[in-house]
Amino acid sequence: MREITYAEAVREAMCEEMRRDENVFFMGEDIGAYNGAFGVSEGMIEEFGAARVRETPISETAFVGAGVGAALMGMRPIVELMFSDFISVCLDQIINQAAKLRFMFGGTVSVPMVLRAAAGGGTGAAAQHSQSLESLYTNVPGLKVVVPSTPYDAKGLLKSAIRDNNTVIFLEQKKLYRIKGETPEEEYLIPLGLADVKTEGDDVTLISYGRTVQMCLDAADNLISEGVSAEVLDIRSLVPLDTSSVVKSVLKTGRAVIVHESVEFSGFGAEIAARIADSEAFFSLKAPIKRVGAYYCPIPFSPELEKSVFPTRARIEAAVRETMKTLHEE
Amino acid sequence: MEDLSRLLNDKPFLESIMERLMLARKFEDEVFSLFKRGRLHGTTHLCVGEEATGVGSIFALKPQDCVLSTHRGHGQALAKGIPVDVMMAEMLGKESGSNRGRGGSMHISDPSINAFGVGGVIGASCPIACGIALSFKLRGENDRVAVVFFGDGSSNEGAVHEAMNLAAAWSLPVLFICTDNGYGMSTPLAKAVNDVDLTKRGYPFGIMSTEVDGNDVLAVYRTVRAARARVTGEGKPAFIVEHTYRTSGHSKSDRNLYRTEAEISDWQSNNPVARFTRVMLENGFSESDIDAIDARTSREIAEALAYAESCPEPAATPRELEAEAYCDPADNGECQCVR
Ligand SMILES: Cc1ncc(C[n+]2csc(CCOP(=O)(O)OP(=O)(O)O)c2C)c(N)n1
Ligand SMILES: [Mg+2]
Asked: Collapsing DSSP states into helix, strand and coil, what is residue A242?
């Protein structure tokens, strides 16, 4: 199959949807001649023109809020935040407006907006340009939250997000923009809320999303030589969450290690762990549920320090060994 | 305003300005070359072409004034007095860096000399400047000003407008300085706003506003000095727009797709270092005087780089980094930061 990059997959999804539906338009900072900070929107202003590929002033509250307003009128804005960290500047529009208008108006309106933002670290961009803040949004009813880990998923999920009638926070992974993967040229959609079993296994389930999925796959590969068979589950969307796939897998393996790049403490992994503990999978657990996330500190600039605070394959493997050890001591 | 002829006769003053301009330029050139050779991590925003704004403005301040620099803040940090070697070490992420390798290019700071690198999320520094100024006011520190730099693109952040209103409503000693280089990333000012006269942004709040040729370092110096005197004299904010141009790209990933080579080279010939060189030559300095400053500053940069490269990487463990996010409980509420 054809291989394209994650950034190209995002672009292809936007272009296909803009060709299909006149109501879809795109706004953000420097998305024209500059092609966006990460080159995602290359060629789009040439194809769709400046009216539908709208370059904004550096005024996140104004243009994210304008996205909410346009969506209320039945348009389908795709709004790009250059770095997901800057969501802090326009959070009211998302938390108090986009997420709540439908409910507050008694179900009479909808806000079909997609907020795309470049998230995550590993690029040396330091504390204010490297965060993974997804658990801020998952705690707000009314929003959907999607984090794709491959070009294939990025395209299929973004197309579904654009067609979704709710506000979707779509967190692209900076560090993955340049990776390539098989991606069909023809149209396909991946429904939001469906986990993907990346590799099957019997001893332990590695549950992840975003940049750390590949680390889990690498760890799973490595653990084979130790006789450990790991299943890797990419949840892909945090809201809605495919709880039943998580439960089903843990019922089978009896062990769960949850991995994400965002800080471990109070991170989304806690919700997944609680879902497992709340389900029938609880009775099949052979070891405590483990989480591997970033340490509880802002992201340091120094490359060595930065690496040290994020999850690594080695930390994932160590967590898996912990869960295996518990069995031996039984 | 400060008498120009008096300044032009002050040779040590002119020389020290030239030294800082050249240091700022050479620092950026070195950083750029390090990036090109893959020796630097992350990204950076160079201020090549804009050196006179940081240097001219900050020379007009007093050491007790707090400076809040931008994401394009190397020149501002250097002018405020952060040593070049410590800045270079920060660029390389070393423990001996200004921020111990934790901050990086956008956050170069030294609170002990009132230099704060809070320009990462643009616009955010303006409200912080208000709070700094409020503390001066509450403590009766009347000869102290909070000086906040922000770009023309950043002037469209709500935080900037809210801060201007607060500073005016509460009569806070804030000096707002807009470094107008004509672009926010790739977006020309005229595309981001309906009226490019940014000085008007101060008027509705009742803030005295003015503008200056930001590539003329002495004009910048005199304008900021006058504004500072007004801020401390009247206890009210002021606003200056400094017009300049960055000949370097927005960041290291900039392919300059939004402007012409001709535009860049026009501005290169109007660059503040060349312009100030002409001023010095017309005012009693010889070519060899200039060459001597040039050689001295080149040496200083080379030494800074050698020093930075020789310094160890930070060795903190993740657990130690976690602790660093909070104050040390052993301090008993006494913060170690210099006030
Ligand atoms: C809140 C926020 N939005 C967007 C950015 C990304 N960004 C960094 S610098 C910049 C352009 C700023 O333009 P201007 O204020 O004119 O300063 P210049 O870069 O020209 O010095 C942008 C969009 C940011 N850092 N923070
Ligand atoms: Mg600018």
From this structure: coil
In a domain, B124, yes or no: yes
Distance CA A74, CA A108 (A): 12
> Is residue B31's pLDDT more than 70?
yes
A10 neighbors A154 (Cβ within 8 angstroms): yes
CB–CB of B102 and A300 under 8 A?
yes
Q: Band of the pLDDT at A328, cuts 50, 70, 90?
A: very low
B186 C-alpha to center of ligand 2: Å? Answer: 9
Domains of chain A in sequence order = 3-182 (3.40.50.970), 196-324 (3.40.50.920)
The pair of structure tokens assigned to B135 is 């503390």
Q: What is the mean pLDDT of chain A?
A: 97
ipTM for the assembly: 0.95
Find out whether A86 and B159 touch, Cβ atoms under 8 Å. no
Q: Which residues of A touch B324 (CB under 8 A)?
A: 297
Q: Which residue, judged by its Cα, is nearest atom 13 of ligand 1?
A: B184
Q: Do residue B184 and residue A57 have CB atoms under 8 angstroms apart? A: yes
Among residues A212, A88, A166, A75, the alpha carbon closest in space to that of B127 is found at A88
The kind and range of the H/E element at A114 are strand A114-119
A303 touches chain B (CB under 8 A): yes
**pLDDT for res A77:** 98
Q: What is the pTM of this model?
A: 0.96
If you search the block for the tokens 């800057």, which residue do you land on?
Answer: A86
Q: How far apart are CA B339 and CA B267, in angstroms?
A: 40
Q: Write out pLDDT tens, residues A239-272.
A: 999 999 999 999 999 999 999 999 999 999 999 9
Q: Name the residue range of residue B310's domain.
A: 4-331
| For the CA of B150, the nearest atom of ligand 1 | 15
Identify whether A260 is a catalytic site residue. no
- Supply the pLDDT for residue B253: 83
Q: How far, in Å, from the CA of B153 to the mean position of ligand 1?
A: 6
Model confidence over A105-152: pLDDT tens digits?
999 999 999 999 999 999 999 999 999 999 999 999 999 999 999 999
Q: Token pair for residue B96?
A: 């001996």
Beta bridge partners of A234: A196, A208
Mutate to test the interface with B, among A53, A87, A131, A305 (most CBs of B within 10 A): A305
Structure tokens at A181: 């993967």
- Nearest protein Cα to ligand 1, atom 21: B151
Among the atoms of ligand 1, which is closest to the Cα of residue B154?
15
pLDDT tens per residue, range A202-220: 999 999 999 999 999 999 9
Contact criterion met (CB < 8 Å) for A85 and B157:
no
* Apex B120 CA angle, B118 and B125, nearest 5: 40
Could you tell me the CATH number of the domain that includes residue B102? 3.40.50.970
Are the Cβ atoms of A296 and B104 closer than 8 angstroms? Answer: no
Q: Count up the domains in chain B and report the number.
A: 1
Distance from A301 to chain B by nearest Cα, in Å?
5
Strand partners, B243: B180, B213
